[in-house]
Amino acid sequence: MKEARKLQWPKRCAGPLAIAVTVILLFSPRPTLGQAGSFTKGVVGDHIRKVEDGVDEFRKYLENRGEDAKGRAETAQSSGTKTTRRGKTSSGANTEARKEQTKRTKDELDDALGDLNKSTNRLRRKFDPSSKYMETKVQMENVMDDGRKINQIMVRGKYGSQAERLWGVLRSAINDLARTYGIAPMGV
Q1: What is the CATH class of 38-62+102-183?
Q2: Which of 135, 128, 134, 143 is nearest to 175 (CA)?
Q3: DSSP character string of 125-153
Q4: What tens digit of pLDDT does each residue of 164-184 get?
Q5: For residue range 112-164, what is the model confidence (pLDDT) as tens digits?
Q6: Helix residue ranges, H only, 38-186
Q7: Helix, coil or strand: residue 96
Q8: Domain segments of the chain as ranges
Q9: Rounded alpha-carbon distances, angstroms, from residue 181 to 8, 117, 130, 167, 176
Q10: Residue 70, exposed/middle/buried by CB under 10 A (0-12, 13-18, 19+)?
């Protein structure tokens, strides 16, 4: 009787043991092509260039948009009309409050974009002379922090479809660069 039990024990454990080994092998970490540190310095440099170009394009758009808005405001002021889009005349206090809110929001976005530009430039300065790009991970984390600030500002404000498109392209470039460093990308 004891002999029969000893022989049955390995047979009963073989199934669950095989399942456990399979699960361990499936979920154990293994190297992949996109793992941090596995990219060449040239590839990472190209991603940094895309982020730099995206920041420059976004800043240029915001500057042009601001100049266009100033031109329209000056034209409206010189003509002496103060009508809203619906054809109604607006009250001075309400208009001033909207102008002030728009200026604060624009300044906040402009400041955050300036911070992103600085952190991207710092990443480039540290990246170029280093032999291993992973040495600049701290600077990349700063770029991500500044990118997250802009992302929050863009989600809260209404900047129009062109600004949202440019930010989407820039955010995508930042996320691609973050993946090369093994940093979690920012959300939408």
Answers
A1: mainly alpha
A2: 143
A3: HHHTT-SSGGGGHHHHHHHHHHHHHHHHH
A4: 999 999 999 999 999 999 999
A5: 999 999 999 999 999 999 889 999 999 999 999 999 999 999 998 888 889 99
A6: 41-79, 92-127, 137-156, 161-181
A7: helix
A8: 38-62+102-183
A9: 52, 19, 15, 21, 9
A10: exposed
With tokens 């909207």, the residue in question is 98
Q: What is the pTM of this model?
A: 0.67
The pLDDT of 68-87, averaged and rounded, is: 56
> Given this model, what pLDDT does residue 115 score?
96
Contact 178, 184 (CB under 8 A): yes
Q: Which long-range contacts (CB under 8 A, 24 or more apart) does 132-137 make?
A: 132/41, 133/39, 133/41, 133/44, 133/45, 133/180, 133/181, 134/36, 134/37, 134/181, 137/181, 137/182, 137/183
What Å distances lie between residue 16 and 4, 19, 28, 35, 155, CA to CA?
20, 5, 18, 32, 49
Question: Roughly what angle, to the nearest 10 degrees, separates helices 92-127 and 41-79?
Answer: 160
- Model pLDDT for residues 78-105, shown as the tens digit of each residue: 555 555 555 555 556 667 766 666 666 6
**Distance in angstroms (rounded) separating the CA atoms of residues 48 and 42:** 10
Q: How far are the Cα atoms of 2, 27, 30 from residue 24, in angstroms, in the given order? A: 33, 5, 12
